[in-house]
């Protein structure tokens, strides 16, 4: 996978990252086996920049990522996350 330097940092990121929202079943139901396999394959292909959020699947994405990443040396992956609302109730974003 092609990599590029991130701004003025020493980080080199793949041009294609792994979006972990699907691990939280944001778009369709996936089995735990499918979720873990997709993350492992992405890492094997060099997509070691992982975009996640505590809100994907109400934390499910990060729990599953933890299962895959816990045995890897920390320098082998880069996590990108975000913050936002953490209320479990539905929120209407419409104007």
Automatic annotation (TrEMBL):
Residues 16-83 form the NADP-dependent oxidoreductase domain. It holds the Pfam family Aldo_ket_red. One of its GO terms (cellular component) is cytosol. InterPro entries: AKR, NAD(P)_OxRdtase_dom_sf, NADP_OxRdtase_dom. GO terms for molecular function: oxidoreductase activity. This is NADP-dependent oxidoreductase domain-containing protein.
């Amino acid at each position: 996978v092609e990599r590029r330097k991130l701004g003025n940092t020493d980080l080199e990121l793949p041009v294609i990252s792994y979006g972990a929202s699907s691990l939280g079943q944001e778009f369709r139901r996936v089995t735990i086996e499918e979720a873990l396999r997709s993350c492992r394959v992405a890492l094997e292909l060099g997509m070691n920049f992982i975009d996640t959020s505590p809100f994907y699947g109400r934390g499910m994405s990060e729990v599953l990522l933890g299962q895959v990443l816990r045995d890897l040396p920390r320098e082998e992956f880069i996590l990108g996350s975000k913050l936002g609302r953490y209320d479990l109730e539905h929120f209407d974003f419409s104007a």
